[in-house]
Amino acid sequence: MTDQRHTCRPDLKQPVGGDRTRSRWWTVGLAGMTGLALTTVAVAPAANAAGRTPTASDGQPSTGSHRDDDRSPSDKGKKEKKSKGTPVPCDADLLTAAITLANARGGAVLDLAKDCTYTLTDSLPTIVVSLVLNGGKKTTITRAAAADNFRILNVGTGGDLVLNHLTITGGQTAGDGAGVFVEPGGQLTVRHSTITGNIAGDEGGGIANNGTTRIEHSTIDRNTGDIGAGVANTGLLTIAKSQLSQNTAIEEGGGVASTGGTVEVRKSTVKANHSALYGGLALADTISTITDTHIAQNNAEEGGGIRAFGGQLTLRSVGLSQNAATNGRAGALLVDPGTAVVVADSAVTGNTATGDGGGIVNTATLVARHTKVIENQSGDQGGGIYNTDGAMLTLFTVKVVKNTAVTDGGGIFNELGGTVELNTATGTVVVKNRPNNCSGDVPGCVG
């Protein structure tokens, strides 16, 4: 093996005797790299992962057991037992060797060093087994600045990777998934971690998911990609109690872009993401459910907050606020053809568009219940909502109030051939909009 050493930058000084220990690790680690005889880094069974339940047959985790974020009332208040994995000292070569051996032996739980940056000069081995990487305070895995471009982590078919308390940064690739790439049939769980500062030339600056990915209590920020700067998805994606912010997409989906597949977002924040074309969230032919989530200050040419094209989208208890369409329509929500959207118990407030639809543009089917559309601004028509020819807009107990359009239809603008049902008997009101409340055929709207 050539003397191409990965560098490592511990953030705190090593304890007395650390150099001697590091020397022993180097010797054993190099032996393990060549002969898979890494004896000092003994591989712990994968079933020891935090939150996993081993089966009686083979000691492997039961399907999906480590992905359940909810505990029963009887478990609340109980301190979780910290898994005891195999320690990996602050050395990138040893991390590579430990993952190589884990792949050979069928899985592992690895405890990475606290206050440590594992600085790589090459990508880590593709993960094809059940592997848990436990970090701690200030544990980071990054690409060396002078190294050739590569992604940090790759989860292959059959691989099941769990990241706990880690920062993944500095990945750069001309393809997909600069931070983490998940192949079809692979699984990724990100817990209490940060995926930041990764750059993809195609999809998924932070994460490209083609399998199953769950993100919990984590931050995905400051990543860059052509499509889906934070996360690009074609598989099953769940985001819970997490933040996606300040990601930049060259085309669409600053926070998340999904083509096909399923997306669930709950109790999260999608904030201050930028897309040149469409959406902080860009959802194409996707079944999506967003619940108890704040989508704010995102901007794109059109559909500043969300652009849905085909598929189904359900928003429950969602706040869409201060998003902007910088050169077109739909500040908060763009519903494109072939899409069925339900908005319930939500608020669309303070969004802006240079074109039509300061709050919402609907070109397909949109049903809103118990929702507020307030103080949105359009540079042309439809300050609150713009409904196009052939589109169906149905409102139950919806308040469309204090929206502004430069040209017409301060509250609602309905194109000829579009259908709007206010259902005023349920409490829907369209009032105090400028220059008028409605324009076009909007039965039950006054002024």
Description:
- Helices cover 7% and strands 43% of the residues.
- The protein has 447 residues and is mainly β.
- It has a domain at 301-447.
- The strands form 4 sheets. It has a 33-stranded mixed β-sheet that branches. The protein has a 5-stranded parallel β-sheet with strand order 28-30-33-36-39, with no helix packed on it.
- The chain is elongated.
- The N and C termini lie far apart (80 Å).
Which residues form runs of ≥5 with pLDDT under 50? 1-78
Mean of the pLDDT scores? Answer: 87
Structural class: mainly beta
| Separation, N- and C-terminal Cα atoms | 80 Å
What is the count of DSSP helices, taking H or I runs of 4+ residues?
2
Estimate the helix proportion, in percent.
under 10%
Beta-strand percentage range: 35-45%
Largest sheet: 33 strands, mixed
Give the overall shape. Answer: elongated
Provide the gyration radius in Å: 25 Å
How many strand units? 43
